Amino acid sequence: MLKATGAAAGAAGIGTAAIPTPTAAAGAYAHPGLLHTRTDLARMAAKVKAGAAPYTAGFAKLTANRHAQSGWTANPQATVVRGGDGQNYATLYNDIHAAYQNALRGHISGDDAHLDTAVAVLNAWSAKLTALAGNADRFLAAGLYGYQFANAAELVRDHPDFELARSQEMLSTVFASVSDDFLVRHNGAVVTNYWPNWDLANMACVLATGIFCEDKAQVARAVDYFKNGEGLGAVKKAIPVVYDDGLAEWLEAGRDQGHALLGVGLMGTFCEMAWNQGIDLYGYDDSRFFKGAQYVAKWSMGGDVPYTANTRAKGAINGWSGSETVTDAAAVDPASTRPIWAMIANHYTKRRGMSASYLTQIAAKSAPEGGGGDYGPNSGGFDQLGFGTLAFTRDKSENPSASPSPSATASASTSAPAGGSDPRPQGSATPSASPASDGNLAATGSNEAVGWTAAAGVAAVAGGVLFMRRRDRVRRESQ
Q1: Contact by Cβ (8 Å): 128, 78
Q2: Using one digit for the tens of pLDDT, what is the confidence trace for 281-302?
Q3: Tens of pLDDT along 94-143?
Q4: Sign of CA dihedral 160, 161, 162, 163
Q5: Beta-carbon-side half-sphere exposure of residue 461 (alpha carbons within 13 Å)
Q6: What span, in angstroms and rounded, lies between the C-alpha atoms of 402 and 21?
Q7: Strand, helix or coil at 301?
Q8: 404 vs 392: CA distance, rounded Å
Q9: Which residues lie below 8 Å from residue 68, measured CB to CB, with a gap of 6+?
Q10: Per-state percent for the chain, helix, strand, coil, to nearest 5
Q11: Peptide bond into 22 cis (omega under 30)
Q12: Residues 147/204, Cβ–Cβ less than 8 Å
């Protein structure tokens, strides 16, 4: 079980008035059941075959991507390094995206060559990879590439040539163990040292690998962390203030746009994977994530949003310490985007029948969404698996439900113990990690400034970036 550590240990922060999660059927998980279910895959294939928009545009983005071509040859490494000397992690994320894109394309087109390619790539890595290394950024590698590998593998888990048990072992020992450790210890830092996206990446890894490996306790830890974690990735820490206008502040909007977009995408990914196992986190705490996503969507399009000043502790436990106060939302470039919006907008508007004007607008603006390789060559362009226009566009439900109803799910995850610790994910639209500070172990990370670009290249904004103003009318919620 994750334990609370760091400066914020012991601080209660979660109310009891939560939307109950659905109870699960007796023990089994639904497979495939991470970002895509069997029903989802069938819908994509049928819509593309029928020539239906916008699925065809989304599928065209997939087939045009160089990673989605059959015959991609993997380049597995025994040790993957992210951060510091000897970095080679680009090899891993390129291969994972090739496996995912080929698997998705194979399911939609019915061409076995793409499924065979995905299996070959994943098998090559599970046969060789034994460790993650580097500075603090190794936790980003664990979180981001762990959840992505699990999603690619989930799509081919029933393929006769896929080494399922070997992939489960590798995901458990190489990725999930590192992500679990981060959520408990936060690299020896005080619990608020790392921004929300660090936690969210590692939360996504723990949840995805738990489902893939059918580990109920692991899934329970991840779900509990979302609700009760002490780190900034827990939903009430990442979205600390709900305003009277129905929007809710995204904490990392005070940092920069790229990392805020990454965080929203990761939390959406977490909620979608949970939903497909019968666990409703999209609607948790009066749809708190919806309010935060609407906030970021409005802000990212250049709209005026409030921001309540906050101060977070930084540094290492029993070592270097400091604090940082943020008072305003950061500058935005309305042309900047990530392939995150279709999934979130379709959940709230099509599954639940909710009005979501900002989400609807930004999803339309970002469509058709591409994937890894369509948003630049740097790591930031590979933080999301993407292709949401193809994968998550859905018809509006005739009977919008506040509860997911998968064919199977894991009951252990619906009643997780209270009081987890908090994990944080990292972004890649701007710096890959928190910048180093005085050589502090807890603040290490690359200073790579990855400019987030549209598929066509870097977009210029006339008149410069927009600076958001703070409104005074706020309603703070008890923590």
Answers
A1: yes
A2: 999 999 999 999 999 999 999 9
A3: 999 999 999 999 999 999 999 999 999 999 999 999 999 999 999 999 99
A4: positive
A5: 15
A6: 10
A7: coil
A8: 15
A9: 62, 98, 101, 102, 104, 105, 114
A10: 45, 10, 45
A11: no
A12: yes
